[in-house]
Amino acid sequence: MRTVALFLVLGSWLCPAAAAQEDWTPEQLDVLAAVHAYLDAWNRSDAHALAALCRADCDRIDARGNVYRGKDAIFEHYARVFASPPPPGVTRSLAYDVFSVRIVAPDVAIVDARYTLRSPPPRPDATIEGMNTVVLVRTDGRWLRVAHRQRVPTSVASAPTRN
Hints:
Blueprint: H1 2-14, H2 16-20, H3 26-43, H4 47-52, E1 54-61, E2 67-69, H5 71-83, E3 93-105, E4 108-118, E5 127-139, E6 142-151
Helix pairs in contact: 1-3
């Protein structure tokens, strides 16, 4: 129940469309809580917290095709991203619009989301939109990332709706 409450509180701020969904299962809500923990850590510029949400064997491929293999490489990447804060008066933020959470095995979930990244380094005046696919595996009772694929589609507006 705490996870559901946490999701509803954070969800309305970080992922408004997902928060509006009333038909997420309890298991999907648990997965979404892990997604929101990631967004919260990113928006706090906390590379340690982001790495803690990944399994040791996690990999991440960003929209430019850069590959980060392993939790340590992912930590180092985020530490570099957050090393230079945005200029005064500029807030760097990441938001997701989750449109699919599929439980594909008892301890495996795939999340698809549109993302909006405001003020990405080194472009404080930019906004980037794209798609993310994240695979999470329940490990010792926690949903942890094992794969994260980021891409910038030709048209975010043509992305699928929630299934």
